[in-house]
């Protein structure tokens, strides 16, 4: 297993900042979507639809850097970037960032940081969904929703996280492997 | 206040009120953090922004919980005030703390290894360059008639290549300027960690515990 060196630390931070900058553009979309869904009482759906985008830094960092803690650190630093860029959620961003990163980390840890392929990514998206959903059950009062609505929220979140954290991350990794900047082994 | 202590205080409180349901404590916390922000001369425009956005999201969430769930007005009040506490506490922290001071404090006071503190700082100083790079990548693609969306792998691919390139160069630059991982360092600027900081942390946490567990609604 690799250890953290200066280059990896800078890389994970730069990656997190890049993701933060890209997703910064998405904030107005989130607000508009939430505003459109709010009158029907469906505002949390906006959150669920876009959640995959926010949690993407975790799987991506974990997949590229491949050091224990990379997914957590990548996602957490993304949250720090968001906070200092002027994101309004402040302290709760940091907590959510750490929790989202941990969720992704469990997936990579379960395979001992040895296998980096579809299976690991899919597992990582599942653990991310479960961990972040459990957090929202407490924090955002999701626990008081009716069961049907709760299931809808969960499924939408899983799909979103699977698309961005799984499919998109894998497509990006494929490009990187073809460009020979990531090792081809470990399917 | 020492940046590390301030960060711990904000995170501990935000974490704790995520589990507890006492709206009066939430209300007290949001008033205190609002006063702290006013005391720190946070601009009126920023305060307005920090109020308008959570007002919308908190109302929308409460409305949604009311329509789609079975809940009590008390719980809705807790959720509503909780969102404001997150935003105001976080606003107080990020508006009164410099990233440089935080990194230095984490290294000196919290004993974070220097390679992390300086690695983070080196990367954070690239922020404007990173923002420009994203714009450049998008513009370059547009010139060839490609629109890069948030779901385009090519966008991330190019971004990651740039990140790898820059991290190699930055790490090499730091090493060539004499930075050695794990070597003992002296500090040009020391961040003080006073007894007062510990007292403030302890007393604030104690007050919050008293409020949370003395039976307030």
Architecture blueprint of SSEs:
The complex is a heterodimer of chains A (187) and B (217).
Chain A lengths: L5 H19 L2 H11 L5 H12 L2 H9 L4 H16 L4 H21 L7 H22 L7 H32 L9
Helix pairs in contact in A: 1-5, 2-3, 3-8, 4-5, 4-6, 4-8, 5-6, 6-7, 7-8
Chain B lengths: L2 H15 L5 H17 L4 H25 L4 H24 L2 H10 L5 H11 L2 H17 L9 H24 L18 H19 L4
Helix pairs in contact in B: 1-4, 1-9, 2-4, 3-4, 5-6, 7-8
Describe what this molecule looks like in 3D:
Chain A: The chain crosses the membrane at residues 9-37, 49-69, 116-138, 150-177. Chain A: Pfam families: ABC_cobalt. The complex is a heterodimer of chains A (187) and B (217). With 187 residues, chain A is mostly helical. In chain A, helix 4 crosses helix 5 (70-85), helix 4 (57-65) packs parallel to helix 8 (147-178) and helix 5 packs antiparallel against helix 6 (90-110). Chain A is built from eight helices and no strands. The mean pLDDT of chain A is 87. The longest helix of chain A is centred in the last third of the chain and has 32 residues, at 147-178. Chain B has two domains: 3-105 and 191-213, no CATH class; 110-176. Helix content of chain B is 75%, strand content 0%. The two termini of chain B are 31 Å apart. Classes of the chains: A mainly alpha (187), B mainly alpha (217). At the A-B interface, helix 1, helix 2, helix 3, helix 5 and helix 6 of A face helix 1, helix 3, helix 4, helix 6 and helix 7 of B.
